């Protein structure tokens, strides 16, 4: 397939490239093969050949080709409560609302129904790669994986491990450390089989819920499993003042140090939130090449402060965006980019110098940042990258300025799923024009 039209793609943290008229050529394996600008000598002939083969796809005037987004932090089972009870403190929200909901995923019909809705919703919002927390249940997590495979979404999925009886309820807990580790290994093997069978882009992820939910044996064992299978790791780190104090009380160490001593901070780790990370923690993240999932909406409710993504980035720590459904209520990375920008402005106003980020910075985090965190060649519209793409309509082009910067900022601030007309993962169309417009 060959797309013809305008493209936005991040060049660096501070720069988004705009190409008003290029051919974006996708090869059979779903990679971007070439991006040909209008002044290259073979622009016309490539376009003509594509047209002759019926594979030329013109992007309409006023629409733009963007990379698909990576969402680094989604709690899949929490989708049915997106937006609910966010006025409660984190621990109460977990115990009273979230754990009872996640426990319901023993019921596979319930799992199927909600996971179908969630995966569709994320794709429809332009999110092409997702790092998911599942629930504790292997079978429900495999249903999520199958739905991702059928829908064409690239998915990194973890069976949640949580076995600490002090911090988890009787009705929703791995019954022992042995069970948490065995079930994690069963899930890894079954997901790898499913991946092979379906040739889809599915990766199992080691997933200690967070330090408070897990016993020492489980944290230790999960670190070992991550090494044995060479897998990504996800958890929460220093999300709240409560979580930070908990680590100090139990281990006399900081949350990041606890994760590190159990082998859970690696170059394949993605830690959510990090609002309370100190410079020493950021140095440790940098040393281990561990990434942060920035979840700006959720952080408003549970984070007790704003993470300075600029500071983390300047310290050389990888940062990408996460919705944290349902600690964050919105499945849209656009909505989260907007919040990231607004929260950073408030952080700056509160006296933290050089913390404000721009729309360009947020776009970099949502595309390149997330891709780097997961070490996947996506997030840029450039040869050698996966063809994870979205075609987005600028709804106000008739009445507002049309220079490239203005269009770009408008897209970041005003795109909802109604303006996302098509979405592709590895060159395969996963959302059609009309899906998002109720047609
Ligand atoms: N910490 C442990 N579990 C969770 C969760 O489900 N959501 C959030 N936001 N933080 C957590
Ligand atoms: Fe979370």
Describe the overall structure.
The structure is a single chain. 40% of the residues lie in helices and 22% in strands. The chain is built from 14 helices and 16 strands. It folds into 2 domains: 2-67 and 380-432, Urease, subunit C, domain 1, CATH 2.30.40; 69-373, TIM Barrel. Strands 3-2-1-4 form a 4-stranded mixed β-sheet. A 4-stranded antiparallel β-sheet has the order 5-14-15-16, covered by helices on one side. The protein has a 4-stranded parallel β-sheet with strand order 6-7-8-9. It has helices spanning 43-52, 90-103, 108-124, 138-151, 177-198, 216-229, 241-251, 255-261, 279-288, 296-302, 309-314, 333-349, 359-373, 404-414, and strands spanning 2-12, 15-26, 32-37, 56-58, 63-67, 69-75, 127-133, 154-161, 202-208, 233-237, 269-273, 291-294, 319-321, 389-393, 420-425, 428-431. It is globular. By secondary structure, it is α/β, with parallel strands linked by helices. The model has no long low-confidence stretch (mean pLDDT 97). Bound molecules: guanine (GUN) and fe (iii) ion.
Secondary-structure map with pairings?
Blueprint: E1 2-12, E2 15-26, E3 32-37, H1 43-52, E4 56-58, E5 63-67, E6 69-75, H2 90-103, H3 108-124, E7 127-133, H4 138-151, E8 154-161, H5 177-198, E9 202-208, H6 216-229, E10 233-237, H7 241-251, H8 255-261, E11 269-273, H9 279-288, E12 291-294, H10 296-302, H11 309-314, E13 319-321, H12 333-349, H13 359-373, E14 389-393, H14 404-414, E15 420-425, E16 428-431
Parallel strand pairs: 1-4, 6-7, 7-8, 8-9, 10-11, 11-12, 12-13
Antiparallel strand pairs: 1-2, 2-3, 5-14, 14-15, 15-16
Helix pairs in contact: 3-4, 4-5, 5-6, 12-13
The structure holds guanine and fe (iii) ion (FE).
Guanine binds at residues 75, 90, 94, 98, 209-210, 236, 239, 298, 302, 324, 327.
């Amino acid at each position: 397939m060959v797309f013809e039209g305008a493209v936005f793609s991040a060049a660096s943290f501070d720069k988004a490239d705009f190409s008003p008229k290029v051919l974006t050529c996708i090869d059979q394996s779903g990679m971007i093969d070439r991006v040909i600008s209008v002044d290259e000598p073979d622009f016309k002939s490539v376009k003509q050949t594509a047209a002759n083969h019926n594979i030329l796809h013109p992007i309409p005037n006023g629409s733009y080709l963007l990379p698909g987004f990576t969402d680094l932090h989604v709690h899949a089972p929490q989708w049915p409560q997106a937006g609910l009870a966010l006025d409660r403190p984190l621990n109460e929200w977990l115990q009273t609302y979230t754990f009872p909901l996640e426990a319901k995923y023993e019921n596979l019909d319930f799992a199927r129904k909600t996971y179908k809705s969630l995966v569709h919703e994320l794709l429809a919002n332009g999110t092409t790669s997702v790092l998911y927390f599942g629930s504790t249940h292997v079978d429900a997590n495999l249903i999520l994986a199958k739905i991702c495979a059928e829908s064409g979404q690239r998915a990194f999925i973890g069976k949640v491990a949580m076995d600490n009886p002090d911090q988890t309820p009787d009705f929703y807990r791995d019954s022992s450390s042995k069970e948490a580790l065995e079930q994690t290994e069963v899930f890894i093997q079954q997901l790898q089989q499913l991946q092979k069978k379906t040739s889809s882009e599915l990766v199992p992820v080691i997933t200690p819920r967070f330090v408070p939910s897990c016993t020492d044996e489980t944290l230790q064992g999960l670190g070992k499993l991550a090494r044995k299978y060479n897998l990504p790791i996800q958890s929460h780190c220093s999300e709240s003042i409560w979580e930070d104090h908990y680590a100090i009380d139990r281990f006399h160490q900081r949350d990041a140090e606890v994760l590190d001593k159990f082998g859970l901070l690696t170059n394949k780790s993605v830690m959510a939130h990090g609002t309370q990370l100190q410079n020493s923690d950021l140095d440790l993240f940098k040393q281990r090449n561990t990434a942060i999932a920035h979840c700006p909406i959720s952080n408003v409710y549970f984070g007790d402060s704003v993470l300075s993504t600029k500071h983390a980035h300047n310290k050389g720590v990888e940062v990408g965006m996460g919705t944290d459904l349902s600690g964050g209520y919105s499945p849209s990375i656009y909505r989260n980019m907007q919040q990231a920008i607004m929260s950073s402005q408030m952080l700056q106003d509160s006296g933290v110098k050089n913390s404000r980020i721009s729309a360009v910075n947020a776009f970099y985090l949502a595309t390149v940042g997330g891709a780097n965190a997961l070490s996947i060649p996506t997030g840029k519209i450039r040869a050698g990258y996966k063809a994870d793409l979205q075609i987005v309509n600028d709804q106000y082009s008739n009445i507002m300025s049309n220079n490239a910067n203005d269009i770009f900022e408008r897209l970041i601030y005003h795109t909802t799923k109604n303006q996302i007309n098509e979405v592709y993962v590895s060159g395969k169309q996963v959302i059609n024009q009309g899906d998002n417009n109720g047609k």
